[in-house]
Amino acid sequence: MWIHMALIVLSAGFLLPIIYTLSLSFSGQGGLVSSSLGLIPEKLTLENYRIILMDKPFFQWFGNSALLALGTVFFALVVAVPSAWAFSRFRFPGRRGLLYLFLLLNAFPSILSMVAIYRLFRTFGLMNSYLGLMMVYTGMMIIFAIWNMKGYFDTISISLEEAARIEGAGTLRILATVSLPLALPAVIVTSVLIFITTWNEYIYAVSFLTSQDKFTLAAGLYSLQGTQYTTNWPVFTAGAVIVTIPVLIVFFLIQRFMVGGLTAGGSKY
């Protein structure tokens, strides 16, 4: 009982910033600097949402973010699915060493590569380019994708693939028609986590997208901040609330796949 009460109090503490953000998005211009810390605005208004949806290029930012996120999911899965299956099914020299090398590479903060990425982008003309960002995002997420899906492929009985091979199926056909359909929960979970990470990514988008018409939602919301004297925080929080809606919708749609996809993906190495 006491443990449950402690968890409820802890959860409520984590929810307070979210509730305050939602409250501020419905408040007037002075909501953030008001002396009151109440969670209910003194004056409810939808003006902040009207501004972000009508007066700002929000839908253009939305489309840019969707393009980047979906493109990254596609490229990451194209590389990660066959790679994960190969690591799971074939015993080649250096296999385990490569897997641990991937983990080691993933341990370094991505911010350390900013200078190198900037030089590469300048050299190959990828500044202010969606293709360049997709390549960076794919590199960021592919290690997680390989490890998660490899663990799920490990749980699939190899006898099914052997039966298909006896029937004359080739390697690619076995992957496409036998292993991949059985690994669908892991593929869906991996895709959604890649999508959410890319959707919310901020540092690279702000650093390498210089044209306002190419801004993602994160970069667009950052541009709304202005300076410390001109920031309209209620409008900013209204935009932040709207940005979370697609992520919540996607999460609830695939919730039934989450537990199986994540636990099976982490069950073996």
Automatic annotation (TrEMBL):
It is found in: Cell membrane. InterPro entries: BP-dep_ABC_trans_perm (IPR050901), MetI-like (IPR000515), MetI-like_sf (IPR035906). It is a multi-pass membrane protein. The chain crosses the membrane at residues 58-86, 98-118, 130-153, 174-199, 233-254. CDD domains: TM_PBP2. Its main location: membrane. One of its GO terms (biological process) is maltodextrin transmembrane transport. PROSITE patterns: ABC_TM1 (PS50928). Keywords: Cell membrane, Membrane, Sugar transport, Transmembrane, Transmembrane helix, Transport. Residues 62-254 form the ABC transmembrane type-1 domain. One of its GO terms (cellular component) is plasma membrane. GO terms for molecular function: ABC-type maltose transporter activity. Part of the ABC transporter complex MalEFGK involved in maltose/maltodextrin import. Probably responsible for the translocation of the substrate across the membrane. PANTHER family: MALTOSE TRANSPORT SYSTEM PERMEASE-RELATED (PTHR32243), MALTOSE_MALTODEXTRIN TRANSPORT SYSTEM PERMEASE PROTEIN MALG (PTHR32243:SF50). Belongs to the binding-protein-dependent transport system permease family. MalFG subfamily. This is Maltose/maltodextrin transport system permease protein MalG.
